Amino acid sequence: MNVERSELLAGIGHDALWALIEGRHGDPFSILGPHESGGMTIVRVYLPGAEGVDLIEAASGRVVAPFSIAHPSGLFAAAMGSRMPYRLRITWPDGEQITEDPYSFGLLLGELDLHLISEGTHYSLSRTLGAVEMSVDDVAGVRFAVWAPNARRVSVVGDFNAWDGRRNPMRLRQSAGVWELFVPRLAPGERYKFEIIDPHGNCLPQKADPVARASEAAPSTASIVASSMRFRWTDDNWMKGRSRQQRLEGPISVYEVHAGSWLRENGGRSLDWVELSQRLVPYVRDMGFTHIELLPIMEHPFGGSWGYQPLGLFAPTGRYGTPEDLAYFIDRCHGAGIGVILDWVPAHFPTDVWGLARFDGTALYEHEDPREGFHRDWNTLIYNLGRNEVKGFLIASALEWLERYHIDGLRVDAVASMLYRDYSRNEGEWIPNRYGGRENLEAVEFFKHLNSIVHERCPHAMTIAEESTAWPGVTKPPEEGGLGFDMKWNMGWMHDSLSYIEKDPVHRSYHHGTMTFGMIYAYSERFILPISHDEVVYGKGSLLGKMPGDEWQKFANLRSYLAFMWGHPGKKLMFMGGEIAQLGEWNHDASISWDVLDRPAHAGIQRLVKDLNGFYKDEPALQFGDFHHQGFEWAAADDAVNSVLGMLRYAPDRSSSVLVLSNFTPVPRYGYRIGVPQDGVWVERVTTDAREYGGSGLVNGAVSSEPVAAHGRPHSLALTLPPLATIFFKGPSP
Fold it and tell me: Catalytic residue at 413?
């Protein structure tokens, strides 16, 4: 069909044509694709660099018409008598390509999707935004969608279009500020980004997809089209097993892990997820931990941030393998009876130009005012929780890990920094809330909403707050005025107990209250006792290095301290390396020093932690009092002179009891009398002074109570308290 050039460009103004050619046009569908004109269908494509294009019938493959060059920059146009399904045969300098026309497809996202995105309640966001493998009109390809409401033009770029932002400009869905485009014949594995022109006409650095489900491994920064195929899980029994509440009432002993430095092969190579499933999972199971907690594994640009400055809140980092590899690792954990907790960071994000910072040329995810939007401590940007779309983005991220990857819990990082508007700010450097206060009301509502949604949609999952202040009700339900977390890290106990154990024993009697103070507030929240990565970095030394005294005393102090922690109310968390008394502080660029296990003292610490986990898991009396005050009594709280502490732990019906005694001096105490609640034989179950742990071997065995009153109880035991030791006695049945 012979058609004049003027007819091929009918209805296109000069300015619109040049905007398209220069890659500035915000409505490419108004020019490109099929358009009815003068009783025929005009098809226009913009393919800079193409040598020629043919219009072919989709059904038969016959050539309907060659495209004419409508503009030498790469605009081609052809006419057909009536509209029909068609394809393009494009001749490039390096070969031929046959494909459907991206601009022949209609609207992609439904109005409900767009409404929910704007409302901040689209909780399956990765199935709507980002890159979604799908078929449209029986054509396989990838639908791209991105929220950038203030952009003049957005294009998807990648290897498939030579990273040329002129080739695939997107359509704006005005009601939600979302840009969309279906690119046919793309498949998982394609690299891509978004090229955005800001409100002022400036072309921004190409942006990674905020909702990408896969990304290139750092230092590369492109997003990757992830597969939509479902992972073949084998953990049905685990997922349908005990409820979240049942799990909270049971033993929780967490092994905190930085995946890249738990074990490195020769040459310093980190293990991938498949290798970790073969090495880490059996180790954790053998050690008796109930959970693995992973430092953030969301994609992050700087390895030295340990993941705490993530930019890909929906994408597992490419450092350790594919998303499918991560799912395999989690599946193997569940198969071994181990839960998986992820550290998750909704507080802030780094300023890298290819990330979220001023994503569409405006403060979109962050606050405009640096008094609200910039963390000087970390040189990061703070999420604007006053925007529905941002809140929805973060909640959808949390659900992505819990639902797609079967994660058992999220430990929410830096909660205190979110709750207080004046966090780490001087007077005049922060903006009060609408009532003039320092509380971040938007963050409060965000946490309540997050936890309500998580517990409604993921009844298996728990949420944990790293909250370092005395904010009330962190673990109370939102309907009772709380934030709704299941547990909270007990930072106060951690600081107090480490401060005490680091002191020379000769001074400990003057600081005795430091070790008892935690019980004053122990049941104000549901607590985890954390000895985390933060305590063994930045010049703080290793756990062993914190201990006073000569070498024997250092190990004895550490054994006694760890056992005191396992005897104290609260769930347990230990960072990797602590269980083998690593000599040096943690280095994320190196492996844990596993070679120290050749030395008996280090192997003894490891065996002790394993035995403590075993006793904790088997003994209801060591679990009930974690969250219920009826399960705890002081056996001896005021013996500061001897630096002795005694705790009594009870099962729910008091059908069993455990006595925990700690002697925090290097002096053995013979005939030490301690009151007990039941008459009968008390059996020593664990003593940190046992020779198999590296101790001196002072043991009690089984001890019968005597009708001698002590500590307000009619019966008592006369015991030997080994030096710098903690011992556990199982009481008789009532």
Answer: yes
DSSP 666: S
Angle at 461 between CA 457 and CA 466, to 5 degrees: 120
Annotated catalytic residue within 466, 535, 619, 684: 466
pTM of the model: 0.95
Dihedral sign for Cα 35, 38, 39, 42, please.
Answer: negative
How many other CB atoms sit within 10 Å of the CB of residue 189? 12
CA-CA distance, 415 to 422, in Å (whole number)? 13
Q: Which residue has tokens 């009700």?
A: 473
Q: Give the Cβ contact number of residue 269 at 10 Å.
A: 11
Pairing state of beta strands 571-575 and 527-531? parallel
Identify the active-site residue in 100, 293, 413, 626: 413
Cβ 518 vs Cβ 497: under 8 Å: yes
At 537, which amino acid appears? V
Q: How far apart are CA 349 and CA 342, in angstroms?
A: 17
Dihedral sign, CA of 626, 632, 635, 639? positive
SS3 34: strand
Alpha-carbon distance of 466 to 273, in angstroms, equals 26
Q: If DSSP states are collapsed to H, E and C, what string results for 69-82?
A: EEECCCEEEEEECC
Note the pLDDT tens digit of each residue in 499-508: 999 999 999 9
pLDDT digits (tens, 9 = 90+) for 329-353: 999 999 999 999 999 999 999 999 9
3-state SS, residue 310: coil
- The token pair at 286 is 């053998």
Secondary structure percentages of the chain, helix, strand, coil, to 5: 30, 25, 45
